[in-house]
Amino acid sequence: MKKSPLDHLLDWSGRILLTLILGFVLLPFIVVLIASFNDSAILSFPPKSWSLRWYANAIEYRDFGKGLVNSLKIAAIGATFAMIAGAGFAYVLNRYEFSLKTLLNSILMSPLIIPNFTIGLGLLILSTAASLPRSIWLVIGVHVIIVLPFVVRSVYVSLQNFERRYEQAAESLGAAPLRVLLTITLPLLVPGLVSGALFAVILSFNEFTASLFVVNQRTQTFPVAMYNYVREYADPTLAAVSVIYVIVVAALLLVVHKFFRLEKVLNVE
Amino acid sequence: MTKRPFLGWFALPSVLIAFGIAASFIAIVQYSLRAYIPGSLDPGGFTLENFTTLWKAVYGQAFVNTVLLCFWTAIFTLLIGYPLAYAMVRAKSAKLRSAILLISLTPLFLGEIVRTYSWIIVLGNRGFVNAALMQTGLIDAPINFMFTMTGVVIALVHFTLPIVVVMLAAALSHIDRNLERAATSLGAGRVRVFATVTLPLSIPGIVAATSTAFAWTFSAFATPQMIGGGKVQTISTLVYQVGFASFNFPLAASLSLVGLLFTIAVLAIFNTGIRRLEKIGGHSQ
C-alpha cells in the first residue's frame, strides 16, 4: 500500500514527538553528567574548567560509605525476611482457604496504598511508644513491610501458572509433603522467587521517605545520606554520586534484560 | 497426615508482619486522638483538638497544593506517557522497542533523591535551562522554577512517568490487533482507527495508570521537599515538618490519617470506575 501525504506527516510528527519525550526523560541525567565534571563548586553551564574532584570527594565522604554499607545490609537482611514471609504467604494464599485469610491479605497489601511517609511515621510512633531503640532492626522492619507486597505478588503469579500435576505425580508415588515441596514445588518456583527477590532488593535499596522517619545518624541509609548531603553542601558531589548510581542501575537492568527480557518481567509484551 | 501441610509454618511470619502493620496503624489512630505536650515525646490525654487544628489555613493550603500537584502531574504524565507506551509496544523495529523500554524504565529503579537532585541541576537559577536560555539571549533574568509549583510538577511528571508507561504499555499490548485490522480493512484511516478502536480499548489502562500516578504523587516526599523548598507545602512535607521540627507526633498522626482516608476515597472512586469500564468494554486480559 502506498503511503499518503497524511501518513508521512503522521510518521514524522510521531518520530519528533518520541524524540522530544525521550529527550525529556534523559535530560536530567545528561545535565547531571556534565555538572559532575565541573571543576567549580558553583554550578555553571557550560563548565569553565573540568575535573574529577567531585568523584574523589564522593568516594572519600564517610557518610556515603557508611550509608552504602547500611543500605546493602538492610536490603540483604530485609529482602531475606520478605522472601521467607512473602513466599510462604503466597503459597498459603494460593493453596488454602482459612478464616481471616482476606483480612490477613488486606493488611499485608495495605502498604501499596498507604503512603511511605505514613508507614514511617507509624513505625516511629510505635517504637517511641514501646520505648524500642531506633536500631537498624527498626529500619529493616520498615523495609520488610514496604517490599513484602511485591514479593507476594511475584511468587503468587508463579504459583498461578503452576503445573500441579508434577506435585500430584510425586505424591501418588509416595513422596511426603516436605519432599514434594523441596524437590518439586520449590525448584519450579525459582523464576518467581528470583524476580521477587530482585524487586525486594531494588525497592529496599532505593527506599527513602519511610527510612528518613526511622533512621538516626548511625543507621542512616544511602539515600538518606545523599539527602543530608544536599541539605548541607551545595557542591556537585551528589552529581558524581548520581552518575555512578545511574550507570550501575542501567548496567544491572541490561544484564536482567539479557537473561529475563524486561518485557516479560513487566508484562508488557 | 494433615490435609493442609505447612499452613501454620508458612503463614506465621506473615502473620507477625501483619501484626506489626496493624499495630503501627493503631498507633497512628491513637496518637491522632491525644493531646500534644510541648517538649515531650509522650502524648497527653484524649482530645479531638488535632483534627480541629487541621482546619487552619496552613494545613488547608497543603491539602489544596497536594490535590493540585496530583491533578497536574496525572494530566501531563498521561499526555507524555501514552505516546511513549504506544511507541514502546508498537514500534516496528525490535531494537527501537528495547531502547525505548530501557530508557523509559531505568528511572524507575533510581531512587527519588537521584532524580530530584538532577532536576535541581536542570531547573535551578544557575541551572541548565536558565543558563541555556540566558546565553541564547531569550531571557534576561532567570526563570524561577525552584520553590514553585511548576518546578515541582515538572520533576513529579518525570518521577511518575515510568510506572505510568509500564501500566499503559501493559494495557496497549493486550489489545487484540485484529480489531484494528478489521477497522482498517473496512476503510478507516490511521487516525480514525486510533480514535475509535485503540484509544477506547485502552481506557481501563488509562484509568488504572491515573490512579497509580495519583498514589505516587500523593506519597512523594523528596521532590516537593527539595524542589518546593518549604514554599510548596504538601501533606507529606508538612507531616515531616510537624513531626520533626516540633516533635508534635499527635498532629502529624492526625494529618497522615486524614491524608490516608482521602487517598482511600480517591482510589476507591478509581476502582469503581475501572470495574464499570471493564464491564462495558468486556475488556479481555
From TrEMBL, chain A:
Membrane disposition: Multi-pass membrane protein
Gene3D superfamilies (alphabetical): MetI-like
Highest rank taxon of the organism: Bacteria
Occurrences of domain ABC transmembrane type-1 (ranges): 68-256
UniProt lineage: Bacteria, Pseudomonadati, Pseudomonadota, Alphaproteobacteria, Rhodobacterales
Keywords: Cell inner membrane, Cell membrane, Membrane, Transmembrane, Transmembrane helix, Transport
Protein name as catalogued: ABC transporter permease
Pfam families hit by this protein: BPD_transp_1
Gene Ontology BP, a term: transmembrane transport
Family the UniProt entry places it in: Belongs to the binding-protein-dependent transport system permease family.
Compartments, record wording: Cell inner membrane; Cell membrane
PANTHER family cross-referenced by the UniProt entry: INNER MEMBRANE ABC TRANSPORTER PERMEASE PROTEIN YDCV
TrEMBL record, chain B:
Alphabetical keyword list: Cell membrane, Membrane, Transmembrane, Transmembrane helix, Transport
Protein name: ABC transporter permease
UniProt-listed PROSITE patterns: ABC_TM1 (PS50928)
Main location: membrane
Family annotation (InterPro entries): MetI-like (IPR000515), MetI-like_sf (IPR035906)
Gene Ontology CC annotations of this record: plasma membrane
Similarity field: Belongs to the binding-protein-dependent transport system permease family. CysTW subfamily.
GO biological process, one term: transmembrane transport
Keyword Transmembrane found: yes
Domain ABC transmembrane type-1: 63-270
Organism, as annotated: Harenicola maris
Membrane topology: Multi-pass membrane protein
Kinase in keyword set: no
Subcellular compartments: Cell membrane
Superkingdom: Bacteria
Span of the signal peptide: none
Transmembrane domains' residue ranges: 7-33, 62-87, 99-123, 143-172, 193-216, 249-270
Lineage, broadest ranks: Bacteria, Pseudomonadati, Pseudomonadota, Alphaproteobacteria, Rhodobacterales
